[in-house]
Amino acid sequence: MKIYLSMDMEGVTGLTDPEEMHAGGRGYERGCELMTGDAGAIVEGAFDAGAEAVVVNDAHGSTKNLRIDLLDPRATLIRGAGKPHRMGQGLTGDFAAACFGGYHARAGVQHGVLNHTWMGKEIQDVYLNGEICGETRLVAGFAGALGVPVAVVTGDEAVCEEARELLGDVETVAVKTGIDMFAAELLPPSVAWRRIREGTARALGRLADFQPYVVPPPYTLGVEWNSTAIAAACALVPGVKQIGPRHTEFTTDDYHDIMSLFGIFSMIGGRISCDSGVYG
Question: Catalytic: 116?
Fold first, then answer.
């Protein structure tokens, strides 16, 4: 049994501060250790359930956050910039299941800790085939297109609710309960990691209960940006259409294109936002 783990950071045990999400920020190094602890608990649970291999993808920001020296040595790690499929890098149809660790609620979800979709202030909302879409739905759709079910989602209570609404009887493990976007009631790491390990093992022990989340093609990705400048710049990408002052759309029959396009959008949107100062 081969298991895939997409590991984000905003939903990691103990973290609530945007500073903890970025290199050089207050608490970032400790945040990386906690992120690696959550990932390790999923890896341990997978091997408890009989996994023969676990591939971990560092899916947050720079994708250089997880500490390979602290990760369970039975796992392998995909790390570093330039990954064409970003949060789904390395996922193929030969995995028995996908696990999402450290995930967070989509943009605008009340009490979702550090809630956003793909980017922070740059994106207001994302839509997939006309329906609102967070990162859980986006990556689950990629897995489903490959025939791989999602078995486990860990993060804050808001993303666990989002995952259950989307995926049904998926195993979820909440490590914190949001009070506001930047405040939460937290579980101690030792408690959270035990629950994550047990939840992962429990989920992978009942794989027959899970079905891939399939979005029917063609796939239309809509993005409502916070800036007319970002929308106009992204519309220069071949195949992307600007359908409103701040709204772009892209349609394809290959879900890999959706994942790749978000990487391009991140570079364009991030550059414009960073160069625009208070107007970004």
Answer: yes
Comma-separated ranges of CATH 3.30.1360 domains in the chain: 219-279
Is the pLDDT at 91 greater than 90? The verdict is: yes
CATH assignment of 2-118+134-209?
3.40.50.10780
Span 148-175, pLDDT tens digits? 999 999 999 999 999 999 999 999 999 9
- How is the chain classified by DSSP, letter by letter? -EEEEEE-STTSTT---GGGGSTTSTTHHHHHHHHHHHHHHHHHHHHHTT-SEEEEEE-STTS--S-GGGS-TTEEEE-SS--TTGGGTT--TT-SEEEEEEE-PPTT-TT-TT--BSBSTTEEEEEETTEE--HHHHHHHHHHHTT--EEEEEEEHHHHHHHHHHHSS-EEEEEEEEEETTEEEE--HHHHHHHHHHHHHHHHTTGGG-----PPSSEEEEEEES-HHHHHHHTTSTT-EEEETTEEEEEES-HHHHHHHHHHHHHHHHHHHHHTGGG-
Report whether CATH 2.160.20 matches the domain 219-279. Answer: no
The single residue of 60, 104, 116, 247 carrying the catalytic annotation is 116
pLDDT tens digits for range 39-80:
999 999 999 999 999 999 999 999 999 999 999 999 999 999
